[in-house]
Amino acid sequence: MTLTQSLYANLYQGGINEYKNSNEKKSLSLFKESCKTEGSYFCYEIGKKFFLGETLNKDYKNAKYFLKKACEKDFLKACNMMGYIYGNGLTGKKDIYWYLLKEEIRSGSWYK
Q1: Model-level pTM?
Q2: pLDDT digit string, tens, across residues 23-34
Q3: Disulfide engineering: 56 pairs with which of 46, 49, 91, 105, CB 3.0-4.6 Å?
Q4: Can you give the CATH number for the domain in which 85 is found?
Q5: pLDDT, tens only, 33-51
């Protein structure tokens, strides 16, 4: 792990620690910084934790925010989760575009 990767991992882990200490505002700030500066992997990991309720409380709104950032950077697992969120209307109105995107990823046509 490079020094730069270590710094970002520290932002990510710092966000987890702040969340566990009930400092949600600070944790979201650290998560956003980690996502912005490092990129898709950390965006995906944060979004996945919100989506599944792993370590962080289940929160589809925050999951959507971070997964969308990862998906926009071509992290396909994040796109698949976004398809599930939108296709099932977990944050409001169903959006067929994201559902179809999820189906394209599942079928493999995304890669062609």
Answers
A1: 0.74
A2: 888 888 888 888
A3: 49
A4: 1.25.40.10
A5: 888 887 788 899 889 999 9
